[in-house]
Amino acid sequence: MSENLKQQRSPKNPEQKIIKRVIALEGDIVKTRGHKKSYIKVPRGHMWVEGDHHGHSFDSNAFGPVSPILISIN
After folding, report:
1. Per DSSP, what are the bridge partners of residue 1?
2. Is the pTM higher than 0.90?
3. From first to last of its 74 residues, what are the pLDDT tens digits of the chain?
4. Alpha helices, DSSP H, located in the chain
5. CA 31 to CA 57: how far, in whole Å?
6. In terms of CATH, what superfamily is 5-72?
7. How far apart are CA 1 and CA 10, in angstroms?
8. C-alpha–C-alpha distance, residues 74 and 30, integer Å
């Protein structure tokens, strides 16, 4: 499990940048918080990200797994 902070483009608004922790990588099974499924297997080519303020964070629990293409290195 990886828990590195990453800056990414918001899936809702690509002009907005958000900072989230990478919680799981492809193939990992994640226990979700508030997602429509209790557990989810991260699909190939995606990762699961979460914010530090559980329940108040716009993260994978709201929008699902994200593609690494949204992750910004700058």
Report:
1. none
2. no
3. 445 777 777 777 878 888 888 999 999 999 998 878 899 999 999 999 998 887 788 899 988 998 888 776 54
4. 60-63
5. 16
6. Umud Fragment, subunit A (2.10.109.10)
7. 22
8. 27
